Structure formats: C-alpha cells, structure tokens
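[Meeting: bench + compute handoff]

Bench side (C.D.) handed over the final construct sequence. Compute side (W.E.) agreed to return the predicted structure before the next meeting so the bench team could plan truncations. Sequence as handed over:
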Amino acid sequence: MVDHSFADLSLAALYESLNPWGPGDDFYLDLVMSAGSVLDVGCGTGRLLRRARGEGHEGRLMGLDPAAAMLVQARRGEGAVEWVLGDLRTRHWETEGFDLVVMTGHAFQELLGDEELRAALAAVRAALSPTGRFVFETRNPAARAWETWTPDRVHEVTGPDGSTVRLQHEVVGPTVGDRVTFTGTFEGVLWDRPRVCRSTLRFLDPDALSGFLSDAGLEVIEQHGDWARGPVTSGSPEIITVAQNT
C-alpha cells in the first residue's frame, strides 16, 4: 500500500518497484485499449498509458498529475503520450471530451473535502464525451484495510542504485469520520535520515459514492468488489466504480 504523495525524485523513482504491475493494472489496461481517447487522472509514473501505447493503442492518451517528479519518470518512457502537470481544477477540456477517464491507485481517496470532491467530479464530467465512462477504485471501508498498516509490516524493495529501501506504515491517531491519517517511513542509503510522508485518505461506502456521483450528473452503471468483477460485499477489498453521464 503506497499513497500518491511522491513529490520528490528519489521517492518517485521507487514508485513502480513499490507498486508492481498487478490485476488492477490489467483491469484498467483492458478498458484503455477499448477506448478511443483516455485521460488518466493522477497518472503517476504513467505506466498504464505507456503500456497501452506500447501494446498498440493509436488514440489520444493524456496523463495528468500534480507531482512534477512523477511526470519526470513518465516522460522517460517511449511513445506519444501527453503528460500534463496539474489537476482537474487547473484544466479546461475540449468539447468532444474523452471516451474514458480513469483514476487508479486509489487516487480518488485523496479527495478529502466535500467541496473538493464535488469540484473534481464536475471536472470529470466536463472531460467526458457524451457516452464516455469514468472508472476508479476506492478501498472498501467495511474491510478496514488501515488496521493492517502497522510498523511491524515492513516492505523492502531495491532502489535505483541497487540498495535496499525499507518502507513501513503507521496509522496516526483514531479515524476521524471517514478519514484515516497515516505515515509512510522510508529508510535506506538514499537518505541520511528516514523520510516520513504523512497522508490522509477518505473511505466512502457505496451509497456515499453514488450520492456524490449523482450530484455531479454521473450515474453508477457497475460496481465491483474485486478485480475479477465480483460483487461488493462487507469483505470485498475494493469498490471499483464505473459511471457515465446521466
């Protein structure tokens, strides 16, 4: 579990090692390959769109991310992809819109306030073509994933210089409503002292998600509890949502 607050080059260079390609990436890649034009919001290192272009996608691909360090990694790849520094609130969209807008890696959970969330969803709707779809995933609050984010669970990866980097997470204080704050501590020879990143994520249940989407003029057409498209249950790790314009 890694958050999206990789704002400097040393951490951005570790992102793909900490988040190896998995079933969720396959899920989104299938969607991207079947869409004529795609906007990846919070694209990070751009792995999804780079993979799509490498597998023959011929349409428009745009990756949007507020972290310049992440886009440095994205631009190292080959293929014609538009990499844009910014977020949904800083862009004005063309009238024809995108066939598909995605938010992967639980980036949606970083939209913490109601007004911030409403503004982001309004921007997504404006970015979509009339028949376009918006697809994103959030962790299911009923599964209480944050209870496993404890310092005794240490994740080790190999850094770009070949050295070992250790990462551990720890929840900070009690949950506040639907928000969980935690730290990620990185240790390795890349830094002279541990690097600590503090993040807060919002855990919305299916009804709350549907309510915000409906208010933005978006309708939920599918929801899955896992990457195999199973139903959402109390034990499902994910809430994978597919929405379109009403």
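W.E. noted at the follow-up: Residues 9-139+203-245 form a domain with the Rossmann fold fold (CATH 3.40.50.150). C.D. will use this when planning the next construct.
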